[in-house]
Structures are given as C-alpha cells and as structure tokens.
Request: fold
Amino acid sequence: MKNLVLSVLFCFTSSYLQAQCIDAQFKSFRQLAYEDVWIGGWSGGALEMTYRHQLTRNDALLGGAELGFVSWGNQLLFNVGYERRWHPGVRGWLSASTYLSNGFAFFTPDPLYVGGFGVRGGYSFLLGRKLALGFYTGVRYYASPGYADYSSINSYWDLPIEMHVHFGRRKSTPVAP
Amino acid sequence: MRYLFVCLLAFAVAVSCTHLGDPISDQDFVNDIYETPDYIRITEPGRDSFEKGLFFYPGALVDPFAYVSWLDSLVTVNPMLMVVVVKMPANLAVFNPGKAFALQDELPPANRWLLSGHSLGGAMACKAVDDNRDKAVAIILLAAYADDKDNLANWPHPVLSVSAEFDDLATAADLQAAEYLLPPPYRMASTADFPMPPGIQTFYYEIPGGNHAQFGNYGEQEGDGQATISAGEQQAVVIDIISQFINRL
Reply:
C-alpha cells in the first residue's frame, strides 16, 4: 500500500518538476455539514501538488494529488479540474475553479474509495516573476460509500481555507505563474 | 536534517492506514448509538442524565467503531453510565488529547467523568487528566501507560490498568517501567479479588491469554502476540472489571 502511494506521488512529482508549472496548496477544512446535519468545527487538512496545463492566457486544466486527513482518517485524492483567471491589475489575479476528486482512504485490511467535487475562488499575489502566493476558499463535498458499512457518517460538506504557492515557468512569459 | 526527519515523519503518518472494525451492519446494538463527526455516544435508550460519563480514546490508527460493540455491552451492564468514544484527527489521539473536556458542554449531564483509552489513547487520556486534574475522577487504561511527561503519582483519584498476557506492544515490562507515574500499585491476581481495598491506588490486572488487539474488534495487529482466548472472552473480562471499578467510585 505504502509503496503504491509512494510510486504514484513520485510519478506526479517528477512530471511537476519537469513542467515547472505547479502549485503547492496547503489546505485546512472547516466543517459545514455531514449527511443532512449542519455543524461547525474543524474537519482536517491536506497538502496538494497541482499541475496546471495552460489552455489560453486565462484558462487552464488542473491535475493534482492531495494527501490529507479528514474525519475518517488519512486519504489520497486525485483532483482534476478547470480554472479561469482574471487579471484586474499587474500585481496578481483573481481565480475561480471547479474540480472532481477521486481517490481512496487509507484503511486496512482494504482501502475504501473516496469521491467528491468542489468549487473555489480567491486571489493570488505576484511575489516575483516565477512565484506567487494565493489565498482561496470555496465549498467541497466528498463521500466514501464503502465507509457506510462502518459508520453512520460517510459524507461531508467542507469549507476549505487554502494557501497556494504558485511556481511559474522558467522562461519569461506574459502569462502569470 | 531535522526538517527532513520531520517531513518524513509527517509523510509516514499521512500514509498510515486505519484499522477498520467489524461492519456495523453485522452488529446488533442494544443501546442508543448517536454519532457525530467528533464522537460516538452510547446510552441506555430514553435516558438523558447519567451518574457517570466515560470518555474513551481509541488506540492509534484504529477506527472508533472498532470498540463500540463491547462498550455497548458495558452500558447494558451499567445503564447509568454514558460512554463517549472520542474521534481523533487522523485517528491519532496525540493530535488532540484534551478533546474530551472540550466536548463536555455538548453532552448530556453526568455527575462524574472518567477518562479511558486503549494503547496510545490511554496514554493521551493520562495527558488530558494531567492537564485538567480536577475534571475527572478516575482513569481506565487498556494496554496503556502514562508518558513520562505526565506524572499522576499524586493525583488524588484511582486508576484501573488492564493489560493482556500476550500483548507484545504494551508489555508488562513497559507498564512496570511507567508505574511510578501513577498512584501506588495494587495488583489483582484475579477478578475475584474484588471488592478492591479503599484508598487511592492504581489497580493492575492482566488478562490471561489476551493480547493487544483484542481490546478492540479490528483484527490482528502487526507485532502483537498470539492470544489464546477469543476477543469476546477478553472483552467480557474487560467489561466485568471496568464495571466493578466504576461501581466503587
């Protein structure tokens, strides 16, 4: 199990390093609701490495691996999504994105599937030609259908609070990192 | 170098697997089981105030429902008892040892509160009590012992420490080495030693034939010894000895 995870992360990390167009995202999850019950509280946290594939100056496809923990324990999610950017000034950009999550929770004897989706928006500040720092929030839903055999709570709505570190391309480009 | 070690440790924790218990659909609970993202509460049906409240911290990387089956039986034997299994971040009590006391306000009232835990959960229960010395009246440790930073030797309340003969993860030597951190020891050769003598003491009882993992229902655990009794038999002894302990409080 650990070898599988390490291999997957290594493959993803390798491609990021070659592409030189990655985000490191630090996430804290505030709880909004579980099943049909609205509550508050802290749900967990995660680190995601995301590759951005630029389509146009303002549009990009996202692909990332998110390692973190939530109420039921540790999990690895692979996120794919779409991002739209706006550039109101030269110091940074506004961004909105939506994504789908698929992955698994680390359980033994067998891992359990986890799926979900989310939307987020925020603002990123340029710190240099190849570096930017962004602050984002949004809403996300995730569930583990198999965990219903072990608990009466197997789905959550969270409010992620995220800090993104954007690493840009090596070559000079008019596109923000 | 230190940062590298911390990063590797964090990564190792992040990819660690949680032991699942038996599917709840296979179990017939007698009492009310109320679950939130923070805890699982087990109470006699219809009861809303309690003589005692027992917080239970699961072992490291063990799903909290892996203990609910025998804790349900404990409530059946002690209907005035409310059991609250505390869910921990990443299923590691070390990340929030004081969580039990933070939950007290949102639970039904109980006259007295006890803390208990299995393995790392027990060690963190000791830590929670050390940090909040006047908020609990007893500690129950299952295959667990206090960390050397949490010296409860002068804590004015009793402790029950239940271990297992073939536990290779929390061994008799480990428990003995940490004895000085708890009130003076009183060893029980059998559960027939009850009623226990008065006074502030740590009551030690080792379950013959038991092991570490059978304090829960999550299967075998790597590094553990081989039990010669079933999980049901081991848990029946645990229920018996805990019931006798809490009834003397």
Q: What stands out?
A: The radius of gyration of chain A is 17 Å. Confidence is low (pLDDT under 50) at residues 10-19, 170-175 of chain A. The longest strand of chain A covers residues 112-128. Strands of chain A lie at 22-34, 37-38, 42-54, 59-70, 73-86, 92-105, 107-108, 112-128, 131-143, 155-167.
